[in-house]
């Protein structure tokens, strides 16, 4: 996997030339946006941003309003011009610095490499849905017939083929943003910039469009840089989350890393209201099998600290026998709905990617028995006891 | 003491000596007439020949045919039978009053002056919207064009272009073109920023941005400029008549000179009818464009 967008020490300062020059010195000293504004009159958009976005991932820029997330996003297609630093974008198999490239290259990147979806949709009201979707292709000089074909494909993709001839304002907000998405997809640009695309929509439609985006992404495998002020949204759709505050990047990491190990109080405050069950997976809370206590040799291991349940694991890592409260037990997947004889003691197992929610439901059904974790080859990799779950929940608070 | 006296004298002299603004102006126009007479003469003659041939062509048609054509045009533009009916009645009234040839002359004068104003005004408005500093210079000039009493520039225009329809058109254009300039400027300036950014983000060139985003977004405002421009042109009809332009202004001037109330009323009503028809026809149709 290679990098699609690479921010290197990007500073963006709004103001005239002299203000910017004076502000840069203060940025280097790490002074705050308020101090810089008071001293120079320049507004610090973002400072010292370093971030690499890998091909095919959804990288979410997160922060409160004014944290510089949109500012940074808009540097990718030079809607904001960085004062200092480089922004590399993959273009024809090489990395082009959009800060310094000539206008022709910039236009090519904007037409073919980087497409954008806007918060307020930014559709052109005098154009029909169809004409809006074809806008980027029209600018790039794609011939009429080809354009028509690609527009129809995109409209079918976002489920708007019935609406092609309508004007944008005749559509609901959710539909308008689908048009915005189709317009961006139509250019077949591999990189997609999404500037709070769902924030202007009501919650139900927002969730629906998030799901649709994830489904489309599974098919299209774009590189998406997504700006959001909503952590739930970020955790839901992001492969990687970057948290920004006052123009600076505070933390970058996978969603569960952010939730489990917040870098500072700002991030901690952010995640305070997040339901960890929807973010964490079994993998995040399990104890590795090497950390499990030996239960009488011969491959027996205690799954929990209370020593209620033990597995006998053979040298290949497969489970040979199970015992719960001293009685032989069955082990069944916690995703399984098949009904087993209710009296048989059983131990549920999960895959590392199973959500913590499912694991906890299994624990509840089995009267707080630990849950085992098996990998794709059914090898035993670790276990989750009730204490591990509680620990994960409490650590964040 | 002595130097104080000197100051007072100098100041007094400054206040009492008249600055010869008027004479400078005259010198400027003398310079223009003596050096660029060929330019102004050819401009005047080409304007008047175009206008008179247009008038002749329209007069060649029987009035009822021309009325039918105008009514049809009004229906095509606005798709409203009420307007078509009103147009027909209004024009028939003018015909009935015996002011047909004057009306055709005025129509040609107004339409061509409005067209020239738009041709000059829209590009200047676009240019000013893209060059903020230029507009700060342009604004006082536009104010001057609209507030300087028309009679003041009637005199130099008369000297440069002579009597006739050409100076009438020129004066009308000077008076009317600030409207399309201002409204085009306003229209382009108020294009929502996200729309411009959408254009830029998808790789529009400056020209594509103008034709595919700015002008369509500004079109309603520019069209309001056209309507205003036509009304301003109509309001100049009487003044144009003072320097020899034919049309409905002529009977008004004649009525004024001879205190002829009936004639003044008839010609004045004809102007009003024409104004209403042109205004309704040049309005942007709501519902069809968006």
From TrEMBL, chain A:
<keyword id="KW-0067">ATP-binding</keyword>
<feature type="domain" description="ABC transporter">
    <location>
        <begin position="31"/>
        <end position="271"/>
    </location>
</feature>
<dbReference type="InterPro" id="IPR003439">
    <property type="entry name" value="ABC_transporter-like_ATP-bd"/>
</dbReference>
<comment type="similarity">
    <text>Belongs to the ABC transporter superfamily.</text>
</comment>
<dbReference type="GO" id="GO:0005524">
    <property type="term" value="F:ATP binding"/>
</dbReference>
<dbReference type="InterPro" id="IPR046342">
    <property type="entry name" value="CBS_dom_sf"/>
</dbReference>
<keyword id="KW-0547">Nucleotide-binding</keyword>
<protein>
    <submittedName>
        <fullName>Choline ABC transporter ATP-binding protein</fullName>
    </submittedName>
</protein>
<dbReference type="InterPro" id="IPR027417">
    <property type="entry name" value="P-loop_NTPase"/>
</dbReference>
<dbReference type="InterPro" id="IPR003593">
    <property type="entry name" value="AAA+_ATPase"/>
</dbReference>
<dbReference type="Pfam" id="PF00005">
    <property type="entry name" value="ABC_tran"/>
</dbReference>
<dbReference type="InterPro" id="IPR051921">
    <property type="entry name" value="ABC_osmolyte_uptake_ATP-bind"/>
</dbReference>
<dbReference type="InterPro" id="IPR017871">
    <property type="entry name" value="ABC_transporter-like_CS"/>
</dbReference>
<dbReference type="Pfam" id="PF00571">
    <property type="entry name" value="CBS"/>
</dbReference>
<dbReference type="InterPro" id="IPR022473">
    <property type="entry name" value="ABC_trnsptr_Choline_ATP-bd"/>
</dbReference>
<keyword id="KW-0129">CBS domain</keyword>
<dbReference type="InterPro" id="IPR000644">
    <property type="entry name" value="CBS_dom"/>
</dbReference>
<feature type="domain" description="CBS">
    <location>
        <begin position="343"/>
        <end position="397"/>
    </location>
</feature>
């Amino acid at each position: 996997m290679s990098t699609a967008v690479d921010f290197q020490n990007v500073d963006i300062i709004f103001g005239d030339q002299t203000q910017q020059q004076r502000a840069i010195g203060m940025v280097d000293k790490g002074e705050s946006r308020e101090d810089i504004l008071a001293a120079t009159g320049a507004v610090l958009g973002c400072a010292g941003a370093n971030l690499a976005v890998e091909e095919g991932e959804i990288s979410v820029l997160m922060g409160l309003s004014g944290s510089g997330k949109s500012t940074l996003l808009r540097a990718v297609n030079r809607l904001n011009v960085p004062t200092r630093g480089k922004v590399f974008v993959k273009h024809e198999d090489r990395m082009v610095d959009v800060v310094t490239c000539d206008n022709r290259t910039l236009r090519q990147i904007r037409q073919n490499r980087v497409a954008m979806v806007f918060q307020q949709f930014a559709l052109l009201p005098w154009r029909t849905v169809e004409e809006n979707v074809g806008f980027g292709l029209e600018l790039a000089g794609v011939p009429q017939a080809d354009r028509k074909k690609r527009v129809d494909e995109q409209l079918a993709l976002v489920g708007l083929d019935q609406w092609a001839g309508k004007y944008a304002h005749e559509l609901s907000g959710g539909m308008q943003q689908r048009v915005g998405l189709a317009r961006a997809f139509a250019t077949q640009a591999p990189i997609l910039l999404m500037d709070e695309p769902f924030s202007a929509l009501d919650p139900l439609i927002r969730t629906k469009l998030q799901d649709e985006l994830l489904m489309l992404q599974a098919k299209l495998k774009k590189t998406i840089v997504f700006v959001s002020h909503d952590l739930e949204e970020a955790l839901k759709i992001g492969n990687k989350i970057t948290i920004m505050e006052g123009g600076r990047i505070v933390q970058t990491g996978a969603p569960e890393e952010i939730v489990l190990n917040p870098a500072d109080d700002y991030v901690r405050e952010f995640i305070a209201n997040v339901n960890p069950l929807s973010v964490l997976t079994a993998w995040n809370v399990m104890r590795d099998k090497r950390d499990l206590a030996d239960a009488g040799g011969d491959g027996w291991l205690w799954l929990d600290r209370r020593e209620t349940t033990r597995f006998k694991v053979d040298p290949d890592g497969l489970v040979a026998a199970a015992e719960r409260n001293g009685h032989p037990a069955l082990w069944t997947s916690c995703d399984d709905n098949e009904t087993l004889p209710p009296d048989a003691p059983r131990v549920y197992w999960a895959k590392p990617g199973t959500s913590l929610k499912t694991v906890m439901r299994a624990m509840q059904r089995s009267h707080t028995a630990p849950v085992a974790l098996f990998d794709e080859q059914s090898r035993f990799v670790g276990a989750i006891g009730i204490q591990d779950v509680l620990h994960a929940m409490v650590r964040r608070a | 003491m002595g130097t104080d006296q000197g100051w007072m004298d100098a100041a007094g002299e400054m206040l009492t000596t008249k600055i010869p603004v008027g004479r400078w102006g005259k010198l400027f126009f003398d310079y223009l007439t003596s050096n660029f007479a060929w330019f102004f003469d050819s401009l005047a003659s080409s304007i008047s020949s175009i206008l008179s041939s247009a008038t002749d062509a329209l007069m060649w048609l029987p009035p009822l045919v021309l009325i039918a054509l105008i009514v049809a045009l009004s229906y095509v533009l606005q798709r409203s039978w009420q307007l078509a009916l009103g147009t027909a009645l209004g024009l028939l009234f003018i015909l009935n009053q015996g002011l047909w040839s004057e009306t055709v002359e005025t129509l040609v004068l107004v339409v061509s002056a409005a067209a020239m104003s738009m041709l000059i005004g829209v590009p200047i408005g676009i240019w000013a919207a893209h060059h903020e500093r230029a507009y700060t210079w342009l604004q006082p000039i536009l104010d001057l064009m609209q507030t300087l009493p028309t009679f003041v520039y009637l005199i130099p225009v008369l000297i440069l272009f002579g009597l006739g329809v050409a100076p009438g058109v020129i004066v009308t254009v000077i008076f009317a073109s600030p409207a399309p300039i201002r409204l085009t400027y306003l229209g382009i300036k108020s294009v929502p920023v996200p729309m411009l950014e959408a254009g830029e983000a998808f790789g529009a060139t400056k020209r594509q941005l103008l034709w595919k985003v700015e002008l369509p977004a500004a079109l309603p405002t520019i069209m309001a400029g056209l309507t205003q421009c036509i009304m301003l042109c109509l309001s100049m009809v009487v003044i144009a008549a003072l320097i020899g332009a034919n049309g409905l202004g002529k009977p008004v001037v004649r009525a004024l000179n001879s205190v002829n109330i009936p004639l003044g009323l008839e010609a004045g009503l004809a102007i009003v009818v024409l104004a209403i028809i042109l205004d309704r026809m040049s309005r942007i149709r709501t519902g069809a464009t968006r």
